[in-house]
TrEMBL record:
Protein name: Uncharacterized protein
Residue ranges with Gly residues bias: 293-304
Biased composition (Basic and acidic residues): 270-290
Organism: Rohdeia mirabilis
Stretches the record annotates as Disordered: 270-340
Top-rank taxon, per record: Bacteria
Length: 340
């Protein structure tokens, strides 16, 4: 639904602009179908319109100046042509940038749009939109000091991470995203595909990590489809949240994902997991025998999923790689405002 998010004075209705001479930009109303608008953006819109000069109703350049001034705001993605409205105002359709992720800059978090644009307005913690916490791009606790509101992401690793966020929106429903909790995406190595390098790494709450491999924006022939990787993540998270399988790392690069179990909590070992472990050992032995030993790792002695067991040895992520900064998961989440 479209709604008015800025403008001074009421608009009675659109009429032909033939009975008035001048348009006051301060009376211009902005309409949008955005799911939310940051209140700080609304203030910036009003201040922008106050700086615009009044113009004659037939002044094409005056209309263009208002549109250009709005378009130059760092959170505006598109501006439609103004429509003159009696007695001395106008209406313009504006499409705002849509936040899908955030990054840490200093002590605050800045939102990032689906187009990779850093948006103005800092938050004390990763903000939520419609009850979902926006994923954080970058290494755990890393200060993206070169991030500039209104400018695109500054590094390839952040763009790799954004492609993962967009695939998350595409393949997971709301409940599945809620189950993930707060998510940090370290995709600095998102273009790497070697067996010994995990590529992109997803950090979940509870000191859990997901080894992803190449990100969706990287051409990787033979890589596991993105949708199947997300299915692996969802299944592993569901098992962990239900206390049926307590893991600290999961590798989703293979047809059958592999997990590293937590060492600080007892975990029952059902027959299915012992069987899977034996299959992994047999597969590894077979591949080594014919000289084709390559691929992923059976981590912590348990695998599950798919039709093919990932061969290889143990993978032990460094402890520091999943220790979240103390303030990431602390306190209430700020919530992005909605269109009034």
């Amino acid at each position: 639904m479209w709604g008015v998010v800025a403008g001074v004075g009421a608009v009675a209705g659109e009429v032909e602009a033939t009975r008035f001479d001048w348009v006051d930009p301060r009376r211009l109303a902005i309409e949008t179908d955005a799911r939310f608008v940051d209140p700080r953006w609304e203030r910036a819109l009003s201040e922008c319109l106050e700086r615009c000069r009044p113009f004659r109703a037939d002044d094409v350049d005056g209309l263009a100046e208002v549109s250009q001034a709005l378009f130059e705001l760092p959170f505006v993605a598109e501006v439609g042509p103004p429509r003159l409205v009696w007695p001395d105002g106008a209406v313009v359709d504006v499409r705002f940038e849509r936040p899908v992720a955030c990054l840490r800059r200093g002590a605050t978090f800045l939102c990032v749009s689906a187009q990779g644009r850093v948006l103005p307005g800092g938050w004390a913690a990763p903000p939520t939109l419609d009850g979902l916490t926006l994923p954080v791009l970058g290494r755990l606790g890393q200060d993206e000091s070169d991030a500039v509101p209104g400018q695109p992401l500054s590094r390839a690793g952040l763009w790799h991470g954004l492609s993962l966020v967009l695939s998350l929106e595409e393949h997971l429903d709301r409940d599945e995203r809620l189950a993930l909790g707060t998510l940090t995406i370290d995709a600095e190595n998102g273009a790497l595909g070697q067996v010994e390098d995990p590529g992109a790494v997803l950090h979940l709450e509870g000191r859990r990590v997901v080894l992803w491999g190449r990100t969706p924006d990287v051409d990787a022939p033979g890589a596991l489809p993105t949708e199947l990787k997300w299915r692996h993540v969802v299944e592993a998270v569901e098992l962990s949240n239900a206390q049926k399988l307590l893991w600290r790392a999961v590798d989703v690069r293979w047809d059958e994902y592999a997990v590293a179990l937590r060492h600080d909590e007892p975990v029952p070992e059902p027959e299915v997991w012992r069987d899977a472990t034996e299959r992994a050992k047999d597969e590894e032995a077979r591949r080594r025998a014919d000289g084709s030993a390559s691929g992923g790792g059976t981590v912590g002695g348990a695998v599950r999923g798919g039709d093919r067991t990932a061969p290889g040895g143990n993978w032990e992520p460094p402890p520091s790689s999943w220790d979240p900064p103390g303030d990431v998961n602390r306190g209430a989440r700020p919530t992005l405002g909605r269109v009034r």
